[in-house]
Amino acid sequence: MDNLSIQFSCSTTITLTTAVVLFLSTIVLLKKYWKRRYWSSSSSNTTTSPPISIPLGTLGWPFIGETIEFISCAYSDRPESFMDKRRRVYGKVFKSHIFGSPTIVSTDAEVSRVVLQSDSKNFIPSYPRSLTELMGKSSILLVNGNLQRRVHGLIGSFFKSSHLKAQITLDMQKYVQKSMALWRDDQLIYIQDETKNIAFHVLVKALMTLDPGREMQSLKQNFQQFIAGLMSMPINIPGTQLYRSLQAIIQERMNKSSESSKAGSPKDVVDVLLNDASEQLTVDLISDNIIDLMIPGEDSVPVLMTLAVKYLSDCPRALHQLMVISETLRMGNIIVGVMRKAMRDVETRGYLIPKGWCVFTYFRSVHLDDNLYERSYQFCPWRWQEMEMGSNFTPFGGGQRLCPGLDLARLETTIFLHHFVTQFRWVAEDDHIVNFPTVRMKRRMPVRVKRRREGVP
C-alpha cells in the first residue's frame, strides 16, 4: 500500500512538473510572439529618415500586459510609482500595455500638450470598455469632430455665462448655509458626504432645473448606482433606471414650450441643447451628456472641496490666505490623466506613436515632478505667487476637450471654503487619500467642528 502511494505521488509529481514546464514554455513563446507582433507592425510603418522610434519600455505579459501592476500601484499611497519606476529606466515617455491595449505613456508635459491639442484626425478618445459602455456612444467624452465641437461649445458657453455664475453663487450659498445650519458644536461631520450633497443639488439645478424633492432623490439614488459601476462590470446604459429617468425628463421638456426658450435665455443645459437647431442632438445624445455632466456633482467637485479641507487641516497657516485651490488641484490630481487612440502614425518630439496604439497622458507625474515644482509633495499654496499656470498644470485636461465647467468648480469650492473657515473651527481625524478607481478620502474626511463665536478667533 505504501509503495502504491509512493508510486502515485511520484507519477502525480511528474505529471504536475511536466504541466508546469509546458505552461511556462507556452507563456515564454507567447511573450516573444507578442513583442515581435507589435514591434514588426510598428516598425514597418516607420519610413522617416532619420528613423523615429517607438519609445522604450515593455509590453509585459501577453494579453494582460502590465495592467495588474498598474492597478496595484494605483491603490497605493504613491500611484505614480508605476510611472516613476519606468521613467527612471526608459525616460518620461515609454511604452506599456494596460487596459487591453499597447499604450504610449506620457509623463512629459510637452508631449501630453501635443496629444491634447490634436484633432480627431490624429487622436480620438479611448477608455476601458467598462467606461465606454456606461457612458454611451453619444457621450461628449467619446464623440468626435463637428458634433463634439458643437456640444462642447454649447455647454461651455452656457457654463461661462454671467447668468449661470450668478445662479450658481446663490444656490451654493443657499445649500451651504442650509447644510451648515444643522451642524452642532463637537459634532463629527463627514466633509465628503456634505460636499457631495451640496454640489449634486447645485449642479442638477444647473443641468435640468430640478429642485430638491422626490424626483431629485430618486435621480440621486440611480446616479449613485451608476457611479458604483463605472470601474466595475460594464452595464448597458439604455437599460438602466437612470437613463430611463433622464429620457422621461428630457422628453417632457421637449413636449412643452419652455418660457425661457421663448424669451431667448436658456435656464439650464437641457434648454441649451434642446434649443439647438441641429438634428444631431437627439434625446439619446442629450441624455448621455447630462449623465456625463452630473459626474462632477457626485465626484470631482466634492472631492476638490474635501481635499482642500484636508490640506488646510494639515496647514493652518494657509487658512489666513486661502490660496489653496490651485495647489489642491496640483496635489490632489482628481483627474489623473486622459487616454487617446492614435488614428495614424504620429511623430512628436522624437517619438513615434503607432496607429492603433493608445496614449495615456498622465498628469499626476507632471504635477508631482520635483524638476517642475520644488518640493512637489509638500502642500505649499504660496508657490503660485511666483509661478504661472502653463502647460505643466493640467488639472482639467486641455485642448478642445478642456473641462467646460472648470470655472464653476473653482467658484463652488471658493464659496464652500469661505463659509466653512469663517463659521467654524475644526479638528480633523486621521484619514488618507484613496486614488483608485477614483480619488476620495477613505473615511470620508471626518472633522469635529465648533462654531466660531463673535469676537473669538
TrEMBL record:
<keyword id="KW-1133">Transmembrane helix</keyword>
<feature type="transmembrane region" description="Helical">
    <location>
        <begin position="6"/>
        <end position="30"/>
    </location>
</feature>
<keyword id="KW-0812">Transmembrane</keyword>
<keyword id="KW-0479">Metal-binding</keyword>
<dbReference type="GO" id="GO:0020037">
    <property type="term" value="F:heme binding"/>
</dbReference>
<keyword id="KW-0349">Heme</keyword>
<feature type="binding site" description="axial binding residue">
    <location>
        <position position="403"/>
    </location>
    <ligand>
        <name>heme</name>
    </ligand>
</feature>
<keyword id="KW-0472">Membrane</keyword>
<dbReference type="GO" id="GO:0016125">
    <property type="term" value="P:sterol metabolic process"/>
</dbReference>
<dbReference type="InterPro" id="IPR036396">
    <property type="entry name" value="Cyt_P450_sf"/>
</dbReference>
<keyword id="KW-0408">Iron</keyword>
<keyword id="KW-0503">Monooxygenase</keyword>
<dbReference type="GO" id="GO:0016132">
    <property type="term" value="P:brassinosteroid biosynthetic process"/>
</dbReference>
<dbReference type="InterPro" id="IPR002401">
    <property type="entry name" value="Cyt_P450_E_grp-I"/>
</dbReference>
<comment type="similarity">
    <text>Belongs to the cytochrome P450 family.</text>
</comment>
<dbReference type="InterPro" id="IPR001128">
    <property type="entry name" value="Cyt_P450"/>
</dbReference>
<dbReference type="GO" id="GO:0016709">
    <property type="term" value="F:oxidoreductase activity, acting on paired donors, with incorporation or reduction of molecular oxygen, NAD(P)H as one donor, and incorporation of one atom of oxygen"/>
</dbReference>
<dbReference type="GO" id="GO:0005506">
    <property type="term" value="F:iron ion binding"/>
</dbReference>
<keyword id="KW-0560">Oxidoreductase</keyword>
<dbReference type="GO" id="GO:0044550">
    <property type="term" value="P:secondary metabolite biosynthetic process"/>
</dbReference>
<dbReference type="Pfam" id="PF00067">
    <property type="entry name" value="p450"/>
</dbReference>
<dbReference type="InterPro" id="IPR017972">
    <property type="entry name" value="Cyt_P450_CS"/>
</dbReference>
<protein>
    <recommendedName>
        <fullName>Cytochrome P450</fullName>
    </recommendedName>
</protein>
<dbReference type="GO" id="GO:0010268">
    <property type="term" value="P:brassinosteroid homeostasis"/>
</dbReference>
